[in-house]
């Protein structure tokens, strides 16, 4: 499980760096687990050189490690029914065993837009209406042969509740500037650490049941127009290949 955590963390940091490279002050919200799970699912198929390329991107996030996870991630393979795609039984067995992914055929050839709407409705249902239009118009057409879709949804209450009456305006540091925003307030003993190498503090806010937590990284200071998290990425940068012990 430690190898899985390390690999997924490396992949997440690398992807975050790519997503924010054109605007390193913008808010970025994405699910590394959702993306890496989709990629590792595909890695069950390609052999030899192609497989090595997948593993290089994923920092050897091997599919077999995902069987240790107690986490519901809903995935589905959608090949077209008007163009024969033959899947090896080992591949289908692997996607079912490690990802609980179902195989469903759809009509991209003659009914692509309706298929797109069906996919969007499936995602909307799985995310409790939070994601309504995953695939925009013209994103798939008769040339589409296969779509891999997954949906991840998480909602939970804090283990230690914030009370609305304590919410107040406080200064918020936005790069080199400050602005007043509404902030929640809580006075409790919570896990808090400091990483000198990164010059940042780490706060853990557990959710109810304490199986999941939100981890907040707060830089000690911001010296330029960056997010202040660049040192975190550099410090926790993992080598492309993790040991296979």
UniProtKB/TrEMBL annotation:
- Report which gene this protein is encoded by: SERPINB1
Q: Which keywords describe this protein according to UniProt?
A: Cytoplasm, Protease inhibitor, Serine protease inhibitor
- Serpin domain: residues covered: 13-243
User: Record's Pfam families?
Assistant: Serpin (PF00079)
Q: Which family does it belong to?
A: Belongs to the serpin family.
Compartments it resides in: Cytoplasm
A GO cellular component term found in this entry reads: cytoplasm
GO molecular function term, any single one: serine-type endopeptidase inhibitor activity
Gene3D superfamilies xrefs: Alpha-1-antitrypsin, domain 1, Antithrombin, subunit I, domain 2
Name of the featured protein: Serpin family B member 1
Keyword flag Cytoplasm: yes
Which GO biological process annotations does it have?
A: negative regulation of interleukin-1 beta production
Q: Which residues cross the membrane?
A: none
PANTHER family to which the protein is assigned, alphabetical: LEUKOCYTE ELASTASE INHIBITOR, SERINE PROTEASE INHIBITOR, SERPIN
């Amino acid at each position: 499980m430690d190898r899985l955590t390390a690999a997924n963390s490396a992949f997440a940091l690398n992807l975050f760096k790519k997503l924010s490279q054109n605007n390193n002050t913008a808010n970025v919200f994405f699910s590394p687990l959702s993306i890496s799970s989709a990629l590792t699912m595909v890695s069950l198929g390609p052999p030899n050189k192609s497989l090595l390329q997948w593993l290089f991107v994923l920092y050897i996030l091997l599919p077999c490690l995902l069987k240790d996870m107690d986490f519901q991630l809903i995935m589905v393979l959608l090949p077209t029914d008007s163009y024969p795609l033959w899947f090896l039984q080992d591949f289908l067995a692997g996607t079912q065993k490690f990802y609980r992914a179902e195989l469903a055929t759809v009509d991209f050839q003659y009914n692509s837009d309706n298929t797109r709407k069906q996919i969007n409705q499936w995602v909307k249902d799985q995310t409790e209406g939070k994601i309504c239009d995953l695939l925009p118009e013209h994103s798939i057409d008769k040339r589409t042969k296969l779509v891999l879709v997954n949906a991840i949804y998480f909602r939970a209450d804090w283990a230690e509740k914030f009370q609305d009456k304590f919410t107040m305006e406080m200064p918020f540091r936005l790069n080199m500037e400050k602005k007043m925003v509404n902030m929640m307030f809580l006075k409790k003993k919570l896990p808090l650490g400091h990483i000198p190498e990164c010059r940042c503090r780490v706060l853990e806010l557990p959710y109810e049941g304490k199986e999941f937590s939100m981890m907040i990284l707060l830089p000690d200071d911001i010296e330029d127009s960056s997010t202040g998290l660049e040192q975190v990425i550099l410090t926790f940068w993992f080598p492309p290949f993790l040991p296979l012990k």
